[in-house]
Amino acid sequence: MEPEHCAEGRDEGAPSASFLMGNRLNLRGLRREDLEYVRSWWDNTEVTAHMETGAYPTTDAMLEEFYSTANQSRNSVIFVAEDRSTGKPIGLSGLYEIFWPGRRAEFRVLIGDPEIFDKGYGTEATLMTVEYGFMRLNMEVIHLGVNAANARAVRAYEKAGFVREGVRRKFVFARGVYCDAVMMSILRHEFPLTKVP
Ligand SMILES: CC(C)(COP(=O)(O)OP(=O)(O)OC[C@H]1O[C@@H](n2cnc3c(N)ncnc32)[C@H](O)[C@@H]1OP(=O)(O)O)[C@@H](O)C(=O)NCCC(=O)NCCS
């Protein structure tokens, strides 16, 4: 029989529709049918305005490689974020370059439609993925690098609890300009469960 404390908080009546369920988002594994969404997000110059993603047109080979990483690598966990109310995929969130001995991972997120920027989805996906990293994968450090010109992303990461560590000078080349990259991280003890939506 399961110890009582392991069963705490479980809602036996809840549907098991998605891997992680938040307020307005579900996070689940990448499926082959998601790849055309991914292509449209990576090829959208508004979405990738501050990123190095988008330097090349997305090819089938790039999508296959991404699918293979998502499905086979134990050093990355890639989620598709779905709008809970519609079930529509709206972006990606994940932990990459997981280094198990050091228990650290790199966080990346992308909301694929500029029409729904600034509505809290990015922050929610960040909180859910970071909680997953700490509570299920037992990470100690989750880190990221972001174009300093991407003020929206920096703000979303700060809202989710990431702190600025420093700057890598002229580290990102996006749209003809070398920009500084802000390095940010969050440590396990800085992420209490009460912050999860
Ligand atoms: C960056 C991204 C994940 C943020 O997600 P989002 O759902 O748009 O953002 P949120 O609504 O969760 O939070 C954005 C915050 O930034 C604020 N913001 C927006 N533009 C801003 C600006 N120019 N300067 C300062 N703050 C800004 C918003 O007001 C909001 O803060 P608030 O809630 O305190 O008002 C999303 O916009 C995205 O995927 N963009 C394209 C890809 C990308 O840049 N990914 C990150 C690569 S590191």
Q: SSE layout and pairings?
A:
Elements: H1 4-7, E1 20-21, E2 25-29, H2 35-42, H3 60-72, E3 77-83, E4 89-99, E5 104-111, H4 121-135, E6 141-147, H5 151-159, E7 163-174, E8 177-187
Parallel strand pairs: 5-6
Antiparallel strand pairs: 1-2, 2-3, 3-4, 4-5, 6-8, 7-8
Bound molecules: coenzyme A.
Brief sketch in words of this structure:
Helix content is 25%, strand content 32%. It is α+β, with helices and mostly antiparallel strands and 197 residues long.
Question: Could you explain the architecture of this structure?
Answer:
The protein has 197 residues and is of the alpha+beta class. The protein has a single domain (17-195), classed as Aminopeptidase, CATH 3.40.630.30. Helices cover 25% and strands 32% of the residues. It has helices at residues 4-7, 35-42, 60-72, 121-135, 151-159, and strands at 20-21, 25-29, 77-83, 89-99, 104-111, 141-147, 163-174, 177-187. The chain is globular. The two termini are 31 Å apart. The chain binds coenzyme A. The site of coenzyme A has 20 residues, from β5, α4 and α5.
- Share in β-strands: 25-35%
Mean pLDDT: 92
**What would you report as the Rg, rounded to the nearest angstrom?**
17 Å
Give every kind of bound small molecule, once each.
coenzyme A
**Major sheet size, sense and barrel closure:** 8 strands, mixed
Strand ordering within the main sheet? 1-2-3-4-5-6-8-7
Our measurement of the CA-to-CA distance between the termini, rounded to an integer number of angstroms, reads 31 Å
In CATH, the architecture is 3-Layer(aba) Sandwich
CATH topology: Aminopeptidase
Assign an overall shape.
globular
- State the helix count: 5
CATH superfamily: Gcn5-related N-acetyltransferase (GNAT)
What's the β-strand tally?
8
CATH class: Alpha Beta
Helix content: 10-25%
Domain module count: 1
Which structural class best describes the helix and strand composition?
Answer: alpha+beta
